[in-house]
Amino acid sequence: NEPVFFFDIDNCLYERSTKIHDLMQIYIHKFFKDNLKLNDEDAHRLHHRYYTQYGLAIEGLVRNHKINALDYNKLVDDALPLEKILKPNEELRKMLLSLKKNGICKRLWLFTNAYKNHGLRVVHLLGIGDLFDGITYCHYEEFPLICKPMPQMFDRALKEAGVLDKKNAYFVDDSGLNTRAAKKFGWGHVIQYVEREEDLEAVRSKSAENEGISLIRNILDIPKVCPELF
Fold first, then answer.
1. Which PANTHER family does the entry link to (predicted)?
2. pTM of the predicted structure, to 2 decimals
């Protein structure tokens, strides 16, 4: 029952400024249009509604349209040209090694709404895959899908990582939905990574809901909000 540090992957272990998120939105939008036979406006509206409602666009597609999530994954996440965008991040690797070597938090865990193929590909390209002790991901072969911010997904992560006391769970994510859920479910140390200036206003507007959640502007700032681990 030692502390475990859970890391979201997309827009968290790599910067949103890489534009992978924007490229993914293009692929998702095309999937909505092609598979649901929608025009641009309706596809955009439905995509936004599903993300807001479920925390994951594919959750709405599977639940309401019986879309095969693994087919979706092949055409969206697996199709992203990540090899042309991501490269080893030596500063991030150094920070993660420092976190593990101190001995207080010996295990690092990936916690993503993506399918495992995508998550493992990202950390491999960043040159940090060997530093993580496991991954909790959205099982696209399941129905219904379980993903953040659902309580079942957080329970799955704790169980798979062997965390008996939620207060020993450290967690960083770029999504306010997910960080607020983690705090609500009793996770002990919750951090939201807000990279863009334009996203700060939304965070500040929910100051009451975000009480107890640390804020960082760079993933390398984790030692500043968790000095006890370093």
1. PHOSPHATE METABOLISM PROTEIN 8-RELATED
2. 0.92
